[in-house]
Amino acid sequence: MTNPQPPASQPTDDTDTATPGSPLSTPIWIVIVVVVGLVAAGLTWLVVGRSGDEAPNSVVSTSVVGFTVQEATVALEGQGLQIGEITLEPSDVETGVVLSQNPPAGSQLAPGSPVNLVVAGDANPVVPDVLTLSETEAVNALIALGLRPGEVTQSASSKPVGEVIGQTPSAGEQVEPGALVDLVVSNGQLGVADVVGLTATEARATLRNEGFRVQEQEEESDQVGVVLRQDPPAGTELALDSIVVITVGVARPEPTPTPTPTPTADAVCGSVQFTRIITDLRDPADPPVQYLQDYTCVGGWAVVLAAVGEQSDQIVLDRYIFRAEGDTWNRVSQNRACADGSDLPDPLRAQACDPIVS
After folding, report:
1. Using 50, 70 and 90 to split pLDDT, how confident is the model at 102?
2. Is residue 131 classed as helix, strand or coil in its secondary structure?
3. Which of 196, 277, 312, 314, by CA, is between 20 and 30 Å from 187?
4. Is 165 exposed, middle or buried (0-12, 13-18, 19+ CB in 10 A)?
5. Structural Rg of the chain based on CA atoms
6. Strand order in the sheet with 213-220
7. Which domains are seen in the chain, by residue range?
8. pTM of the model as a whole
9. What values do phi and psi take at 29, rounded to 5?
10. Could you read off the pLDDT of 303-325 as tens digits, one per residue?
C-alpha cells in the first residue's frame, strides 16, 4: 500500500498583505501627509489672501476730546466716520471745544458711523455777525459758538477777496447747537454798471466809484457828450482797478458851406456910376444928390451913403444897397439884404443894417 504524499506547499508572495486591524504600510502614510499639508496651505492662502483684499469691517474711533468741532470733524472723517449730534454744555473750558464723545474713543465702529459730541458752549446759540470778516475768521467765530460752517459760495463784490458779504441764517437768529451757517464771500470782482446813455461825467463818476478806471474815446454823433457804448458791456465781472472803455459822442464838424456864386464883377464900383444910378432912382421932386458920403463894394454887393438936400445946412444921408448882376447894379431893400439867410457879405452887414450915424 502506497503511503499518501503530504500536500504540496503554496507559493509565497513577496508583497505584504494587510490584515484587518494591521497598521498601514509606510508609503500610504507619506501620501496622506502630503495631501493634508496641501489642503492646509490652501486654506491658509484663502483666508490670508482674501482678508488682505477686503476693506476693514470696523474702525477704532480716535479721541477728539479737547479738539474744536472743526478739528474733530477732520479727524473723524479722516477715519471714515462722521459727526453725529452736537450738544452744547456750559463749561469753564473754552467755547467750541469737545468735552466728550459717544461712542467713546477706542470703540469698534462700522465705517460711516456717527460720533456724537458734547461741546462747551451755550445750549441756545445765537448766530454771530460775521460780515466783513475773512472766511477763516468767520469759520472760527462759528466754531467757537458750537456752530458749523455750511456751504461757502463766492459772489462778485467790490469788497476784498475772501471777505464775507453774506450769511444764512442772519446774525442774531437763535439756532440749534451744531447748526450750519452758509457763507457768501467776495471773489474780488464786480459787475460793470450800465453807463450807456449817461453823460460822460456821470459815467466816469459811476465807474470810478465802483473801483474801475475809465478810458474814453470819441465818436461823431448827434448825442453830444453822451456815452454811446462801453467795453466790456454792463454786467461783466471784472477785477477791481480794471479799465472800462466808454465811447462818447462828439459833434459832427459843420459842413463846408457851398460857396454862393459871386455876382459878375463887370459892374463898375465907382463914385460916378453910383451918383448917376442914385440920381436916376430918385424922384425929380426929391432933394438932389450933393455928393457920395461913402461907398463900399464887396463880393458883388455895394453899400452907398449919398448926401442929399437943397442947401448945405439941410444935408441928410440916404443909404442905398446894390447887388451886381452882370454889368448892372440893382437896388436891394434893406429888409431883404439884412434878413436871415441873406448872402450879404459880413464886411458889409454893419454898414447895410445898422442905423446911419451922421
Report:
1. very high
2. coil
3. 196
4. middle
5. 58
6. 213-220, 243-250, 227-231
7. 59-120 (3.30.10.20), 135-187 (3.30.10.20), 190-250 (3.30.10.20), 271-353 (no CATH)
8. 0.38
9. -60, -40
10. 999 998 888 778 889 999 999 99
